[in-house]
Inverse folding.
């Protein structure tokens, strides 16, 4: 079984920063793309940022220039550095990963979510 464990959420004032972490563990052959999604109350879950195993990234327009996604392949961990936070960034943030449990066996996993609240 594969688990994604997130950490780093919390309450911060507008303009502040937070860093989220997500570690993948369990029986894995390879972790491919990893990413962060978020879901605000009453809204659909949306992509925040995604990074491939080779380091290519893509971001939602709303976070470009403020958020940075990175990863440590040796630790199967992805990070999201969030700067200049705005109240509209308030949401539950979910980690997501494409994992090969063994060669050619592709699966997609979600973390349990971590709350980020930005006060004005």
């Amino acid at each position: 079984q594969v688990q994604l464990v997130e950490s780093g959420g919390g309450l911060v004032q507008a303009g502040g920063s937070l860093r989220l972490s997500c570690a993948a563990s369990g029986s894995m052959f390879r972790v491919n793309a990893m990413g962060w999604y978020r879901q605000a109350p009453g809204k659909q879950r949306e992509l925040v940022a995604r990074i491939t195993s080779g380091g290519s990234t893509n971001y939602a327009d709303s976070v470009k220039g403020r958020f940075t996604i990175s990863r440590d392949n040796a630790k199967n961990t992805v990070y999201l550095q969030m700067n200049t936070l705005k109240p509209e960034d308030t949401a539950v943030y979910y980690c997501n990963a494409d994992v090969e449990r063994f060669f050619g066996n592709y699966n997609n996993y979600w973390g349990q979510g971590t709350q980020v609240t930005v006060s004005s």
Notes: DSSP finds no helices and eleven strands in the chain. Residues 19 and 81 are 4 Å apart (CA to CA).
